[in-house]
Specification:
The complex is a heterodimer of chains A (about 375) and B (about 280). Chain A contains 14 helices and 17 strands. By secondary structure, chain A is α/β, with parallel strands linked by helices. Chain A folds into 2 domains: about 180 residues, Rossmann fold (3-Layer(aba) Sandwich), CATH 3.40.50; about 110 residues, Rossmann fold, CATH 3.40.50.920. The longest helix of chain A has 18 residues. Chain B has a single domain, classed as 3-Layer(aba) Sandwich (Rossmann fold).
């Protein structure tokens, strides 16, 4: 097989769909380091990218990998890396650098059991908070969590687009079950998908500001070698990219980093909602757990028990307003997670004391089953 | 002297970013001068040059030069540079690093950039310590030397940057110092004009930290030490061994013409893409 099988129906693996999504989005440069359970992404791109003259490299570690894609992105390539748990930890400094320097890139983190080496071949959702707060300092975060093969494909394209539109790293976080499972999937036609083109400045060379303050907080980024010569540093910088410690410039930079996300939450928010309005009990879940929730909902329906499902596809920024609006009136919110409790704290934060927020944790390397969810719902109903 | 100003100014962000952060007597500015003279004599366009650095005193250099400039995280200049070079092979990538940046935290990257023969010129200013954080020992601090973290003297052996990178496969490996500036100019120019991975170690004084901790006197005294304690490889070869004992050898140690990574990758693409519709 070569390239994206536009319009074809195939049995496709989640990680494979991520790799094909990257190709569909016009990836120019991939740098990575082998790690289970993400390796298929690198392997497929290693096979495909040289065929079309695109750049692929296996670096010496994950730190080098994220560093390389930041360099690649600044030099004009649409860039991605793929990793998992320990590799994601190693990439945190580079991730913060990309946030600070506003470099678009896509980081795929296929979640496995942790901490440390943990359960390399088994599923977990333990990196949700690390994806939000893993790198030091306040910083923006856009994190997408697919629940099926189609989303692995489409959200990878979306991740490239958002990275471009927001000039920031976007993290795609399938859990191991999603990365490794296979489903029948009919790929869209090539003309059915939208790829955001790389923006480029059109101002005269001497007017260019690498961090021009626009209404959206994002300005078109020039690339190295384009004729616009600019400086990039991880030090807090002014609008031209040079280091600054002037209070007003520091505050302006930090505010803009935050506000370029918070002012456009509507563009980022993406939830799948099922029967929320008519249900007193809602399952709040993401990733592979959503699949079990859908199955559990059907089983419970046969028992004439109605439950709603709330799934954030974009996990960060968290859909604060919608959660407050739709869930604060519920009796029970069940929050099943493949960890010891991470997203549940966000749900608790946004709901009143009258709402029972009930955890369901599983962290033994296996998925949460529909039966577990049915039992948990029966207990609270 | 005044006649020379306009030419140097062409390469510097002279009006905006000076004075620089380096201490009086620091050798890094001299290395920057060598780099600029090399670029000028090679006739490179400013737009085509990417200067990438890590963290430390040397890594502040990109602010002052009017190229595409990238000041990255500690130790990672070569990894960032690798990505930029891959994505845009037209860029002429210069990585400027210090001894701590390139040999300690960035040690993994320099051996692999050498092994790959990645098309980057690495210029390592070796002042034997971490200057920016106040003079701690680095992997090139000589045995016995005092630094703020070796108050009783350095007990570890030091790295030989040139031997390390030559053994790892770099196309071009050379050492110069900031006393023998004309020689350094020539070495840097030669390094820049080649392909593959090219390494220049430039010995430089750090009078503020290393010099003070080891009672090596002021900046002038430290320059004299470079004059007296180093020897050109051609001279060293002519002298009996006992006369060169303890001296640091300057010169070009490796000058191979292996195909660089970028060209090898391009050939791979050509080979595998024939017959594939794009």
């Amino acid at each position: 097989m070569s390239g994206v099988p536009w319009g074809e129906t195939k049995l496709v693996q989640g990680n494979e769909a991520v790799a094909l999504g990257a190709l569909a989005a016009g990836i120019d440069f991939f740098a990575g380091y082998p790690i289970t359970p993400s390796t298929e992404v690198a392997e497929i791109l290693a096979r495909e990218m040289p065929l079309i003259g695109k750049k692929w490299i296996q670096m010496e570690d994950e730190i080098a990998s994220i560093s390389a894609i930041i360099g690649g992105s600044l030099a004009g390539g649409r860039s991605m890396t793929a990793t998992s748990g320990p590799g994601f930890s190693l990439m945190q400094e580079g991730l913060g650098y990309a946030c600070m320097t506003e470099v678009p890139l896509v980081l795929v983190n296929v979640m496995r059991g942790g901490p440390s080496t943990g359960l390399p071949t088994q599923v977990a959702q333990g990196d949700v908070m690390q994806a939000r707060w893993g790198t030091h300092g306040d910083h923006p975060a856009i994190v997408l969590a697919p629940s099926d093969v189609e989303e692995c494909f489409r959200l990878t394209i979306k991740a490239f687009n958002l990275a471009e539109e927001f000039r920031t790293p976007v993290i795609l976080m399938p859990d191991e079950v999603i990365g490794h499972m296979r489903e029948k999937y009919t790929f869209p036609g090539e003309d059915e998908i939208c790829v955001t083109p790389q923006a480029s400045p059109d101002v005269p060379l001497e007017w260019y500001e690498h961090y021009h303050t626009s209404a959206t907080g994002v300005s078109p980024m020039a690339h190295f070698g384009s004729g616009y010569r600019f400086h990039v540093t991880g030090l807090t910088h002014d609008t031209h990219g040079f280091p600054t410690r002037k209070v007003e410039e520091v505050v302006s930079k930090m505010n803009r980093l935050k506000q370029k996300i918070t002012r456009r939450l509507d563009v980022l928010e993406n939830n799948r909602l099922h029967d929320i309005e008519e249900s007193k009990v809602v399952i709040f879940c993401y990733g592979s757990v959503y699949r079990s929730a859908l199955a559990a909902q059907k089983i419970l329906a046969k028992q004439r028990k109605k439950v709603g499902i709330f799934r954030p596809v974009t996990i960060w920024p968290f859909p604060d307003r919608t959660v407050k609006e739709l869930l604060d009136s519920k009796e029970v919110i069940l929050v099943p997670e493949l960890n010891q409790g991470q997203i549940i704290h966000e749900v608790e934060r946004l709901t009143s004391d009258s709402v029972r927020v009930v955890p369901l944790h599983r962290f033994d390397g296996y998925e949460i089953t529909p039966e577990q969810l049915v039992a948990a719902v029966q207990e609270v109903m | 002297m005044s006649a020379r100003l306009p030419y140097a100014y062409r390469y510097l962000r002279a009006k905006k970013k000076f004075p620089h952060v380096w201490c009086p007597g620091c050798g890094i500015g001299i290395v920057m001068g060598s780099i600029i003279r090399a670029i000028d004599s090679l006739g490179w366009e400013l737009d085509d040059i990417l200067m990438v650095s890590g963290i430390g005193c040397t890594s502040r250099m990109p602010v002052y030069v009017d190229f595409n400039t990238l000041h990255t995280t500690h130790g990672r200049a070569l990894a960032f540079g690798t990505g930029a070079k891959m994505a845009n092979p037209n860029l002429k990538v210069l990585a400027v690093m210090g001894d701590g940046d390139s040999m300690a935290i960035g040690g993994n990257h320099i051996i692999h950039a050498s092994r790959r023969n990645m098309d980057i010129t690495a210029i390592i200013v070796n002042n034997n310590n971490y200057g920016m954080t106040g003079g701690q020992f680095s992997p090139t601090t000589p045995r016995g030397a005092k630094t703020s973290t070796t108050p009783y003297g350095m007990i570890e052996p030091d790295f030989d940057i040139c031997k390390l990178t030559e053994a790892a496969g770099a196309n071009f490996v050379a050492r110069g110092d900031v006393y023998h500036v004309v020689e350094l100019d020539g070495i840097i120019k030669k390094a820049m004009s080649g392909s593959g991975f090219r390494v220049v170690e430039a010995l430089a004084p750090c009078p503020t930290n290393f010099g003070r901790a080891n009672r090596q006197g002021d900046a002038v005294n430290m320059m004299e030490l470079l004059r007296d304690n180093t020897i050109n490889i051609a001279q060293a070869d002519k002298l009996p061994r006992e006369k060169t004992e303890g001296k640091i050898v300057r010169g070009i140690f490796a000058d191979k013409n292996e195909t660089g990574y970028i060209e090898i990758y391009r050939k791979l693409c050509d080979r595998v893409s024939s017959g594939v519709k794009k």
